[in-house]
């Protein structure tokens, strides 16, 4: 196995690193405090081509794969997990789904707008009553002539109030996961109302809202994939999304380690830098173990996905290890910083708060275990 990145992959990583350090990092803490959406940062990312990484060149994207996207997302999340999730959902859930399941007409109409960043994409699967049990959703789409008419509500929608379009899942058939279809829904249509904006513990600069749809009419051509086959489209797409959230966990871990190394070298107690004490060294070493493990699992999942091979369990493994690692590193980074780490003068309390969601969205840690176990039992 060759662990070397190509020159192009290194170039993407370095581009994302400069974007992260020069554009995202200086404003991350203030946007977090004000719960301010990173609109300018998203526009800049799009100018650099980071909004269309998975979109083929013929539709205005970079035509790259999940490994390149992962390299970029790790860097961005190290600086700012809110920009990270905005770009992860836009690329790995919305753009990739439309590219994989959209008709030629749909791809031609929507992918260039997503690639250029003119429109932000949002993924509308969850509802207040259907989270882990995604197959029980109740938002309805009824065929009416050449249209579908959609009525219902969606919840926990990342960038839902900023989006130009949603990939939305609605019930078109019987109860259960065999009666769900996927659609592209333009955000400006009559009958769509943005509901409650969630006041969050972490990733506060990203936006998370409810959506209400009342008789929203869309062309039947906006169906993605086959009628009533939308649940598999959702899960297949989430396999890619979970690699993106694993990158978020890894980026947060790297940020925790970088801050901890700096502080441990500078902070003196009992007449020497605290980095010279073994309990601190063990924490730093444990962080590195989690970082390197997550990186290998992320690269493996991304390479399998790019090769068109089975990657469902690999993505779940990467997400589980990276998200648990991020929570561990966030906690221990604060411990190394002591009282200073508990205060907002240092960024580690933000890393700790941002890490918490990585074990919840795009499938909880418990759901990742279920996916991994089902894959073992199916062998
Ligand atoms: N790809 C393609 N098809 C898949 C699949 C995958 N990864 N996983 C399962 N399937 C297929 C199965 O083979 C099965 O097909 P058949 O009926 O033909 O055999 C079908 O899909 C149904 O699968 P299950 O019976 O396993 O379905 P289930 O109802 O038991 O649910 C689950 C499985 C793993 C619990 C799933 O519901 C799940 O992942 N839940 C978590 C939902 C989730 O991650 N939500 C995230 C919300 S989006 C978000 O957070 C975005 C954001 O904005 C940040």
Briefly characterize the structure.
With 379 residues, this protein is of the alpha+beta class. It is 54% helix and 16% strand. The model has no long low-confidence stretch (mean pLDDT 98).
The distinct bound ligands, ions and cofactors come out as: acetoacetyl-coenzyme A
Strand order of the largest sheet: 1-4-5-8
| Shape assignment | globular
Total count of helical runs of at least 4 residues: 11
Assign the structural class, choosing from mainly alpha, mainly beta, alpha/beta, alpha+beta, or little secondary structure: alpha+beta
Q: Over all CA atoms, what is the radius of gyration?
A: 21 Å
Query: What is the CATH fold-level name of the largest domain?
Result: Butyryl-CoA Dehydrogenase, subunit A, domain 3
Q: List the domain count as a whole number.
A: 3
């Amino acid at each position: 196995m060759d662990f070397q990145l190509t020159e192009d992959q290194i170039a993407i990583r370095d581009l994302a690193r400069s974007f992260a350090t020069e554009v995202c990092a200086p404003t991350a803490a203030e946007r977090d405090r004000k719960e301010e959406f990173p609109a300018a940062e998203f526009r800049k990312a799009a100018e650099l081509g980071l909004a269309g990484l998975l979109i083929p060149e013929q539709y205005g994207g970079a035509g790259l794969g999940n490994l390149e996207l992962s390299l970029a997302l790790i860097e961005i999340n190290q600086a700012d997990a809110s920009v990270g999730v905005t770009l992860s959902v836009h690329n790995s859930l919305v753009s990739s789904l439309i590219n994989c399941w959209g008709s030629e007409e749909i791809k031609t109409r929507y992918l260039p707008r997503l690639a250029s960043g003119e429109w932000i994409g949002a993924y509308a699967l969850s509802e207040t009553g259907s989270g882990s049990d995604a197959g029980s959703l109740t938002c309805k789409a009824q065929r009416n002539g050449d249209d579908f008419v959609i009525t219902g509500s969606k919840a926990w929608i990342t960038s839902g109030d900023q989006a130009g379009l949603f990939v939305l899942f609605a019930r078109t058939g019987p109860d259960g996961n065999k009666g769900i279809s996927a659609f592209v829904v333009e955000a400006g249509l009559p009958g769509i109302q943005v509901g409650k904006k969630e006041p969050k513990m972490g990733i506060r600069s990203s936006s998370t809202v409810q959506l209400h749809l009342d008789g929203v009419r869309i062309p039947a051509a906006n169906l993605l994939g086959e009628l009533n086959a939308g649940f598999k489209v959702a899960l297949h797409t989430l396999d890619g999304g979970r690699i993106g959230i694993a990158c978020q966990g890894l980026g947060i871990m790297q940020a925790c380690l970088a801050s901890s190394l700096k502080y441990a070298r500078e902070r003196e107690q009992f007449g020497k830098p605290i980095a010279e004490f073994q309990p601190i060294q063990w924490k730093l070493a444990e962080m590195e173990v989690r970082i390197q493990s997550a990186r290998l699992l992320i690269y493996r999942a991304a390479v399998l996905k790019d090769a068109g091979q089975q990657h469902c369990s690999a993505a779940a493994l990467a997400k589980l290890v990276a998200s648990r690692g991020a929570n561990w590193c966030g906690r221990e980074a604060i411990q190394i910083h002591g009282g200073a780490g508990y205060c907002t003068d240092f960024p580690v309390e933000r890393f700790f708060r941002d890490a918490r969601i990585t074990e919840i969205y795009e499938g909880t840690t418990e759901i990742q275990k279920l996916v991994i176990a089902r894959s073992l039992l199916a062998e």
